[in-house]
Design a protein that fits this description.
The chain is α/β, with parallel strands linked by helices and 131 residues long. It has four helices and seven strands, in the order βαβαββαβαββ. The termini are far apart.
Length: 131
């Protein structure tokens, strides 16, 4: 099986800036992508949507159509869990050069149950937008 590299948001940004053709895929839901925000330039290809929360049947096809199998792909979600699932699914489908962004866009909750205060793309002040 393909080795999925675990990286931080800062490392993800470096890979996206340096590796030719590298793409960032945001696998969160449409609601999260639109209303919580997303990294500038991220491709939105959800792995799940509500209300079923099951892996979408067309996930692999959507990624294949958008990227091809040999492009370096950085996968991200809210905290790194769904994106790892996505990376594992893509690895099984023959994709190479996979990275999982461990802290995700918002990171884990802090002691006050708030996100984006201890980790994540936004916490590291990397470029993002809403809408």
């Amino acid at each position: 099986m393909t080795n999925i590299q675990r990286i931080t948001p800062v490392q993800a940004k470096e890979i996206l800036d340096v590796e030719t053709g590298a793409l960032l895929i945001d696998v969160r839901t449409k609601m999260e992508y639109t209303f919580v925000g997303h990294p500038i330039g991220a491709l939105h290809i959800p792995i799940q949507e509500s209300p079923a929360w099951e892996t979408l049947d067309n996930f692999i096809d959507n990624v294949t159509q958008a990227t091809g199998k040999n492009v370096p792909l950085v996968l991200m979600c809210r905290s790194g869990v769904r994106s790892m699932k996505a990376a594992e699914i893509l690895a099984q489908a023959g994709f190479q050069n996979l990275y999982n962004m461990e802290e995700g866009f918002e990171g884990d909750k802090d002691d006050n149950k708030h996100r984006s205060t201890t980790g994540g793309w936004r916490f590291h002040k990397l470029p993002w937008e809403q809408g």
